[in-house]
Amino acid sequence: MLLRVRRLFKSAGRNVLRLYYACRDPQTPRIVKFAALLLAAYLISPIDLVPEALPVIGVLDDITLASFVIPALLRLLPEQARAQADRASDAFLRRLAFWR
Q: Engineered SS bond to 58: which of 41, 52, 80, 97, CB 3.0-4.6 Å?
């Protein structure tokens, strides 16, 4: 069980890093960059659809939204931008000892 949760967090972290490097690439469409900015603003914003004061449900809506939107944004990337973001994120993650 914990191994599956660990793999899930690794995958999510890798996708967030890929999206970050893709947004820095000039080949990435502006709509993808804007959607990533809106997602980041929603996730750090104190104003939510479901308030964070609710113990589990408040965080669960943020996690659910991010888990659907980030892969969708990565699919909208051009192939060259996606490949370059993959290489950059893999190079960054190779430097981290705890990620292996």
A: 52
Q: How far apart are CA 47 and CA 27, in angstroms?
A: 32
Q: What is the mean pLDDT of residues 35-60?
A: 82
Please list, in sequence order, all residues whose beta carbon lies within 8 angstroms of the beta carbon of residue 9, skipping any fewer than 6 positions away.
Answer: none
Helices 30-44 and 2-24 cross at an angle (nearest 10°) of: 130
For the chain, which residues make up each domain, given as ranges? 2-99
Distances (CA, A) of 33 to 19, 22, 59, 60, 75: 9, 8, 24, 24, 13
**Among positive and negative, which fits the CA dihedral 45, 61, 31, 72?**
positive
Q: What is the pTM of this model?
A: 0.82
